[in-house]
Specification:
binds magnesium ion; alpha+beta; 12 helices; 27% strand; Actin, Chain A, domain 4; 345 residues; five-stranded mixed beta sheet
Length: 345
């Protein structure tokens, strides 16, 4: 069995070769506050954020695209492998991915972790590469193409040419920072403190990258900053846009920076091909228009932005040539053969 695990800051997706995406879970865990034992994983823990009992510690095992809680990720991978493979004799081959900025040491650590969690073999692919394939981009196209993957912790911008990554940058301006900006704005302008889940809800319900006409508004519960009493206020799309404005400007500047670094021929190709957006952050209303306006290039949002990386890993499993050309890190030299052999069966 070959499985691909997209270890995201916000969500974890599992792809099984021949079946497709079989699991989509929040990237979060509840630990026993005293012993540190993992008590619960995934979606059921998500609603606990900001309201967990003292006996439990809620953690996000991935931070800014890298593993911050190794034991939790180990438990998660082991849990998924067990769920998918039961007590099978043969252990699965596990493909995973990391943002472009992750160091070699961290990459090796993830591979070791996958093996310790029950994988027979493990490999790591570059996340932007998987995102681009999952978005349906034709990476055999000889010219330059750009993908921007906006996750919870990082935004990854990458340029590809002829099956390989030519340029990439990973920055920590992504979904979580937009929420932090909304929290700061409401405290400063409305004197109200809201939690992370509420801020995320505001972003998804009324958030917009450009000022929205007609304006939308939603009721929001929080706590007065001065009296600490519970309060309810209306938050408008304009307020959400103003709150996120600076952060979105940073995001735009990163994309511009990569375009500036791109050699002229490739930049010309991107001009004709446009930019593809993936990752949950690409769902922010009006983001495509904003980026189009700011870069002057055509911007397209992938069909299932949250699923792109997992789907792309599926494409790689079917076409090992992508593994050969692309800095794929295998734990053993023999590992790539596994994909090739399976292909020829
Ligand atoms: N409709 C939406 N509007 C704006 N942001 C969204 C929407 N849906 C999801 N997101 C954001 O996308 C981010 C998660 O994207 P995802 O690709 O799953 O991240 P990761 O790869 O880091 O796990 C979160 O910050 C989430 O709030
Ligand atoms: Mg991701």
């Amino acid at each position: 069995m070959q499985i691909g695990i997209d270890l995201g800051t916000t969500s974890i997706l599992v792809y099984v070769r021949g079946k497709g995406i079989v699991l989509e879970e929040a990237s979060i865990a509840a630990l026993d506050a005293k012993t540190g034992d993992v008590k619960a994983l995934g979606n059921k823990v998500h609603q606990m954020v900001g309201r967990n009992p003292k006996s439990l510690r809620v953690v996000h095992p991935m931070r800014d695209g890298v593993i911050s809680e190794f034991t939790v990720i180990h438990a998660m991978i082991a849990h998924y492998i067990k769920k998918l493979c039961g007590n099978r004799l043969f252990k699965p081959t596990v493909m995973s991915c990391t943002p472009a900025s992750v160091t070699g040491l961290e990459r090796s650590a993830i591979l070791e972790l996958a093996i310790a969690a029950g994988a027979s073999r493990a490999c790591l692919v570059e996340e932007p590469f998987a995102a681009a394939l999952g978005a349906g981009m034709d990476l055999t196209f000889p010219g330059g193409q750009m993908v921007v993957d906006i996750g919870g912790g990082t935004t990854d911008v990458a340029v590809f040419t002829m099956d390989a990554m030519a340029l990439s940058r990973s920055v920590k301006v992504a979904g979580n920072l937009l929420e932090d900006a909304i929290i700061r704005y409401l405290r400063r302008e409305r004197n109200v403190i809201v939690g992370q889940l509420t801020a995320e809800n505001i972003k998804k319900q009324v958030g917009c990258a450009c000022l929205r006409r007609p304006e939308l508004a939603i009721p929001v519960r929080g706590q007065s900053y001065t009296t600490h009493m519970p309060v309810q206020i209306e938050v408008s799309s304009t307020e959400a846009s103003l709150a996120m404005r600076e952060c979105l400007r940073d995001m735009t500047n990163v994309i511009r920076g990569v375009l500036e670094e791109t050699p002229p021929e490739m930049a010309g190709d991107i001009d004709s091909q446009g930019i593809t957006l993936t990752g949950g952050g690409a769902l922010l209303r009006g983001l495509d228009s904003l980026l189009q306006k700011e870069t002057g290039l055509r911007v397209r949002t992938a069909q299932n932005p949250v699923q792109c990386v997992a789907l792309g890993m599926g494409v790689m499993m079917e076409h090992p040539k992508f593994l050969r050309n692309n800095n794929v890190l295998f734990r053993t030299d023999d590992d790539i053969g596994e994909f090739e052999r399976n292909r020829n069966l």
